[in-house]
Amino acid sequence: MPNPPTPLILDVDTGVxxxxxxxxxARHPDLELRAVTCVAGNAAVDQVVANTLYxxxxxxxxxxxxxxxxxxxxxxxxxxxxxxxxxxxxxGFARPSDRRASSLSAVALLRQELLRAIGAGEKVTLVPLAxxxxxxxxxxxxxxxxxxxxxxxxxxxxxxxxxxxAAAEFNMWHDPEAAAIVLAACAELSIPxxxxxxxxxxxVTVDGDDAARLRDLPDPAAQLAAALIDQQRALFGxxxxxxxxxxxxxxxxxxxxxxxxxxxxxxxVAPGLTRGQTIVDRRTWHGDHRAPSTTPKHGxxxxxxxxxxxxxxxxxxxDVALEVDAARYAALWLSAFGA
Length: 339
Ligand code: BDR
Ligand code: CA
Fold this sequence. Notes:
By secondary structure, the chain is of the alpha/beta class. It is 35% helix and 18% strand. Strand 4, helix 5 and strand 5 (149-155) form a beta-alpha-beta unit. Helix 1 (16-27) packs parallel to helix 11, helix 2 (45-58) packs across helix 10 (220-236) and helix 5 (133-141) packs parallel to helix 7 (176-189). Bound molecules: beta-D-ribofuranose and calcium ion.
């Protein structure tokens, strides 16, 4: 008997590559997209909601609930990524949807879906593809939802340098406090975590021939995907275009295509050049400075260096993606369109 489709929820800041992820999540028969929540990131949150509804319309997924979430990071000022995704977040291809967003907030919709999953004896894979503001608020407000989360597979971070800054990847840099809270909460609540960061995100690409094939299909999602691929190729002056966030959805569908290693990971929240950096502790020994490798238990100060007076940002034990079969993931993404 075939396996039932994997239930998942995306948290997005749509965004060109979030659009690619939404198309795959909505279309692939091995996935059941239960909800999409929106957050400020690549564009302002109302634009993100509008883009998400439109992309789901093109993918024929009008039944999937979409909720508006945080309009700004927890502490930091918001910064969009219009220089990459265009002023409208979709490279000039944003169009209005005749559908409305859920009356629930993002956190309320996440809570509803996760509690429903718990009630049904199920678990949902949560895939944050954006700054983690909504997820931090969810896990701190309603930690009881953890029992409904199979795993968090997030796009964000890097073990090898950033893109928003030399040190930090955009989603982490946009709301470092939220990202640090999410990792801490995952450690405390025993939620397994996979980090699909820049180390693999950069490598999965499609090209102009793929775009041409998509453009010829009688499928509005494929035609939008083709337009977005060509917009990104022109913007960066490259033959190829990254599928970006869609790779994290591939990681849910095909974890065997990913090479992961398990490390303690923290997010730097201090001001300065490394703010928002994911500190991936790849040491095989404790080192001279006994930085904690697990979250300290309340009141125990477990593993905290005796000579450190800095506040400790707790770590989570994370499966960090360091290798990817890029051709396999590109083919998997294209399969969502039958291309
Ligand atoms: C991430 O930031 C956004 O621009 C993309 O949508 C992706 O989620 C890459 O750093
Ligand atoms: Ca994104």
